[in-house]
Design a protein that fits this description.
CATH architecture: 3-Layer(aba) Sandwich
Strand order of the largest sheet: 2-1-3-4-5-10
Oligomer: single chain
CATH topology: Rossmann fold
Shape: globular
Number of helices: 9
CATH class: Alpha Beta
CATH superfamily: NAD(P)-binding Rossmann-like Domain
Radius of gyration: 19 Å
Structural class: alpha/beta
Number of domains: 1
Largest sheet: 6 strands, parallel
Helix content: 40-55%
């Protein structure tokens, strides 16, 4: 019997790379990974060609415009890649009866909550990146009923550019560092997202029950960026002094939500996903770096 095919866009990103590593754990599928120069997701004809050739059962959209601050001035590109392209992928998935897994963000929320955000809580992005990702969710769900949206937060990996790698570089170079302590959320190791996504697909494939909808996924624990930096320093035994500062002392072009803790009960109950503690995952990633 022929193995089901999974297509993955954005193979050179943090998640795309981790999915390539994780696919050995799920050998029951055929995988096709595409970088931006191999599959431009903003080009409908290019997507059509890939679908015609491979007739995938599943499509993981790991491609995204992720430059949060740049998105404020480059709104057209952010919307094209995050929203419009996702909507087009969903449409083509619908034509080919392909199930879509699309990755979104905690930045769809405004950060004014005092409790962990649930999947059906009101969305209200405070920056353009968040808005473009919120639109991506709307278009994906509208254009293909068989869609799972996974919102995640504070993603880092051994691959690509991220907070962990920036801290490692700065802590080696500098004697002192300032890190904001009034933005709170959950770090997420991209390796854990990759394994969760493939586990969800393998369960859906086995049971023939896809359970579409929106889900939240991150590592366990809610901390500030300062806490995150302090633990990186502690694990790597750097001498650099890390100072907590308020956001007002570190202005950025894009506003960030002050609180983006997300409830993961739904993904745990629906798919039996086991979440790792953020420190455990951070230690694992740092041991590879």
């Amino acid at each position: 019997m022929q193995k089901p095919t999974i297509i993955v866009s954005g193979k050179n990103g943090q998640l795309g790379n981790e999915l390539q590593d994780a696919c050995v754990l799920f050998p029951q599928f055929n995988y096709r990974f595409f970088a931006r120069d191999e599959l431009d997701i903003s080009n409908c004809n290019a997507i059509e060609k890939i679908f015609k050739k491979y007739k995938p059962q599943y499509f993981i959209n790991a491609a995204a415009y992720t430059a949060v601050d740049k998105a404020e001035t480059d709104q057209e590109s952010a919307y094209l890649i995050n929203a419009e392209a996702t909507g087009n992928i969903a449409k083509i998935c619908n034509q080919y009866n392909t199930k879509l897994i699309h990755v979104s963000t905690d930045y769809v929320f405004d950060g004014n909550s005092k409790e962990q955000y649930k999947e059906d809580d009101t969305t209200s992005p405070v920056n353009y990146y968040g808005y473009s990702k919120w639109m991506s969710e709307q278009l994906a769900l509208k254009n293909n009923q068989q869609t799972i949206i996974i919102r995640t937060s504070w993603v880092y990996s051994v691959y690509g550019n991220n907070f962990v790698k920036t801290m490692l570089r700065l802590m080696k170079e500098r004697k002192e560092l300032n890190v904001v302590n009034d933005q709170v959320g959950s770090p997420t190791y991209a390796k854990d997202i990759a394994e969760a996504v493939l586990l969800i697909i393998s369960k859906a494939d086995k049971t023939k029950n896809f359970q579409e909808g929106i889900y939240h996924f991150s590592n366990e624990g809610i901390i500030s960026w300062y806490d995150f930096a302090a633990v990186i320093k502690e694990i790597k035994k750097f001498d650099c002094i890390v100072h907590p500062i308020p956001t007002s002392q570190y202005p950025t072009p894009a506003k960030r939500p002050a609180y983006s803790g997300m409830s993961k009960e739904k993904i745990i109950e629906t798919f039996g996903i086991i979440l790792k503690d953020w420190k455990q995952s951070l230690e694992e990633c740092l041991s590879k770096l």
